[in-house]
Specification:
The protein is an alpha+beta fold. It has one domain. The chain contains four helices and two strands; from the N terminus they run E-E-H-H-H-H. It has a two-stranded antiparallel sheet.
């Protein structure tokens, strides 16, 4: 995989925190997020939560200080789609 420099962030730059999907897939880098966006249908990309998530990732590429906001926007979109895995509870219960 070719690494592309994007204003300090690259496709291998980690997100603010990893996001685990119900499928077991983990989105943990800028490249993982971009690849996931690429799997969305045109109809899904038109939903406001995905528009915001994509816009926030683009903002983070311009200004890396916004990476946490971008990760949180992606987390929200995944949650709204029902594909985000539930976090484990502390103490197992």
């Amino acid at each position: 995989m070719k690494e592309i420099l994007l204003s300090g962030l690259t496709i291998v730059s980690p997100l603010a925190f990893p996001l685990t999907l119900k499928s077991g897939q983990v989105i943990e880098t800028v490249g993982d997020a971009a690849a996931y966006f690429g799997t969305l249908t045109e109809e899904k990309r038109g939903h406001s939560h995905w528009k915001i998530a994509v816009k926030m990732l683009n903002n983070a590429l311009d200004q890396p200080a916004y990476l946490k906001t971008a990760t949180m926007s992606l987390q929200t979109a995944l949650l709204l789609e029902g594909v985000l895995a539930s976090p484990l509870t502390v103490g197992g219960g």
